[in-house]
Amino acid sequence: MGRVALIADTSFYVGPHIARLLAGRGHDLVVAAPEDGLVEELVAMGATVEVFPDRVRLADPDAATALVQAGLDRFGHVDAAVAFTGRVVTGSFLSSTADDLDAAVRGCVVEPYHFLRSVVPHMVEREQGQVLVFTSAAGSKPTPNAPLYSSARAAANMMVRNVAAEVAPTGVQVNAIGTNFMDFPEFRRASGADDPDVRARIESAVPLRRLGTMEECAAFSMPFIDGTSTFTTGQIVNYAGGWV
User: Fold this and answer.
1) How far apart are CA 84 and CA 177, in angstroms?
2) C-alpha dihedral over 149, 150, 155, 157, to 10 degrees?
3) SS3 of 135, please?
4) Predicted TM-score of the model (pTM)
5) Which CATH number fits domain 4-184+213-239: 2.60.40.1080, 1.10.3720.10, 2.102.10.10, 3.40.50.720?
6) H or E element at residue 239
7) For the segment 200-217, what is each residue's pLDDT rounded down to a tens digit?
């Protein structure tokens, strides 16, 4: 019985890149909202692919459950699961509103909660599985102009640690990668990095003096989901060019 990986969004960010790497490593896949041409590419690589056509709004508990159930209905099990969560909320604390806080918590805490609540019980029942949640390196240190976002990300990181500790005796791994300074549209929009001058200033704050790519981030994530390393859990690994 081959390994099956579930990717909660393959329309953007590192999702399509992770899907390609996992297909190349012999995984069958459950993919949500795949970008154009991705499914055909994965099938050509030898993967059997279950397509969940709609974008999964993980803040909706029914949506996360439906995605996991689609994988179980097709393959009978899920060995690895990946989600990209969060909503970037910027601005100073003194100018913030309760609505800003609600948005940060809903995107950064509620989304990973529902994802974990949907996928972890199945893995606990099988006494194996790997879960990877993408959070943010902003959850590891105070972040100017994003205090609510940073705080909500810190809460998500602690939730990952708590879930990991609770289920570790069953053999299930739960980890997180906290990214920052990644070269993708949402970060560039939020930071203004599409302006070359702004991008140069941002990159000067990164010890490695550049933004991270989706390809290298996907490669970094593999040991947490591809079944080759099963002795790490409860870790929040920051991927931010040395910023943390």
Assistant:
1) 10
2) 120
3) strand
4) 0.95
5) 3.40.50.720
6) strand 236-239
7) 999 999 999 999 999 999
